[in-house]
Write a structure and sequence with these properties.
- It is a single chain.
- With about 375 residues, this protein is of the alpha/beta class.
- It has a five-stranded parallel beta sheet, sandwiched between helices. Strands 8-7-6-9 form a four-stranded parallel beta sheet. Strands 3-2-4 form a three-stranded parallel beta sheet.
- It is globular and about 65 Å long.
- Bound molecules: FE3-S4 cluster (F3S).
Length: about 375
């Protein structure tokens, strides 16, 4: 793999031991995936942030690093809200470990926004090269924005943030971004809810596997695409999808679909995921809520009181921008938490059954929280939480 003179100096240890180790990691990744060179990145998004998922080994590794990031780098959700961890019921021992993880990232210069929706906080543009690691953020960046990122592991994304470059292979290359399977959605209803797009992603992720799907027959908005991509990345390994006449690359590029496998999806295949089971808590905001989603939740909760715990998750930056809306949601008894989510917070493990409006959470809650998961629209989630 070609390295420029500066890369070579880093590899030789002339910029410190941490950067040398990080360059070794990038070079090793590049060799495994056949990269010919490194490419400069605009930003990184770093997973491996919750103590629940990285444990003592991850904390020790992070603590051994000594350098500062050279591009904007945002941390993924952690296992608790930084400010309100006691209010959420986080175990103090866990909180102490989580704070040590946060301190380690802070020392490296990583932005502690702790969100899987970094695209709401920093400008990311069509064609930007990135090193993002949370799968729903990767899907959104590639598909909805038209930026270019592989699905990085946590250490790979952090190494890229500390060096400012990532190996140029996979989805960084135009030739690897063409559709590989066509998915036709047989439905006249174009006004599907965010949850229904999440369920569609849950279903089609299993069908697409690791191929790049090209959807026909749907016209989702950005929140719907966020839900679709997050779920496809959870049940499949889809890091990029195109939607006919909707996503930027599908609009700009005249893809040939000739010879591709065509899969038809009937509405009944999606309907059957909406099972009505009794739940103990409701959690929305996977991926973290947009401003529009917070406003919709506030509208639905107006004048109501929750009778079951209702958790809402969003980035701190989005909460700060929507203080009045968040206040209105919390007057119902619901709680809007930053920095964490229903999957990475151990607090959610106390509930045997959890209702969500997300196809990704539907896929992850059973394994990560040991709970039965039910999916419903945001209207249904609010109705269940307030009935
Ligand atoms: Fe984000 Fe947690 Fe869902 S990290 S995509 S809210 S599982």
């Amino acid at each position: 793999m070609y390295l420029d003179p500066d890369d070579e100096k880093i590899l030789a240890g002339e910029r410190g031991e941490t950067r040398q180790r990080m360059m070794e990691l990038l070079v090793a990744l590049g060799k495994v995936f056949g990269a010919e060179r490194l490419v400069g990145i605009k930003s990184a998004q770093v997973s491996g942030a919750s103590y629940k998922t990285i444990g003592e080994y991850g904390l020790a590794w992070l603590s051994s690093l000594d350098a500062r990031v050279v591009v904007p780098a945002v941390l993924n959700p952690i296992g608790m809200p930084r400010e309100r961890w006691q209010e959420m019921g986080t175990d103090p021992e866990f909180a102490a470990k989580q704070q040590a993880v946060i301190a380690a990232y802070e020392r490296l210069g990583v932005n502690l926004a702790c969100t899987c929706t970094p695209y709401y906080l920093n400008t990311t543009c069509f064609g930007d090269h990135l090193a993002w690691s949370e799968s729903s953020a990767v899907s959104y960046a590639n598909s909805v924005i038209g930026a270019r990122t592989n699905r990085e592991g946590g250490p790979g994304a952090l190494a890229a943030a500390l060096i400012g470059k990532t190996p140029c292979y996979g989805l960084h290359l135009e030739k690897n971004r063409s559709p590989q399977v066509v998915i036709d959605i047989k439905s006249g209803d174009k006004n599907w809810s965010i949850a229904r797009y999440g369920a569609l992603g849950y279903h089609t992720g299993k069908l697409a596997g690791n191929k790049i799907p090209y959807f026909r027959g749907i016209t989702p908005g950005s929140d719907q695409m966020k839900a679709l991509g997050a779920a496809m990345a959870a049940t499949g390994a889809v890091a990029l999808y195109h939607i006919d006449n909707v996503t930027p690359e599908a609009k700009k590029t005249d893809y040939s679909l000739t010879g591709l496998e065509v899969i038809s999806v009937e509405p009944a295949e999606i309907d059957r995921l909406f099972k009505k089971i009794l739940v103990d808590a409701v959690a929305v905001g996977c991926p973290h809520c947009s401003s529009g989603e917070l406003m919709e939740i506030a509208r639905l909760l107006k004048g109501k009181t929750v009778t079951k715990p209702l958790y809402v998750f969003a980035a701190q930056g989005i909460i700060d921008k929507n203080r009045e809306t968040v206040g209105s949601i919390e007057r119902s008894g619901a709680r809007v938490f930053a920095d964490t989510c229903m999957v990475v917070s151990p607090v959610m493990e106390q509930y045997p059954a959890i209702m969500v409006n997300s196809g990704k959470a539907l896929a992850y809650v059973p394994d990560m929280c040991g709970a039965i998961a039910r999916i419903g629209s945001i209207e249904e989630c609010v109705a269940v939480a307030t009935s």
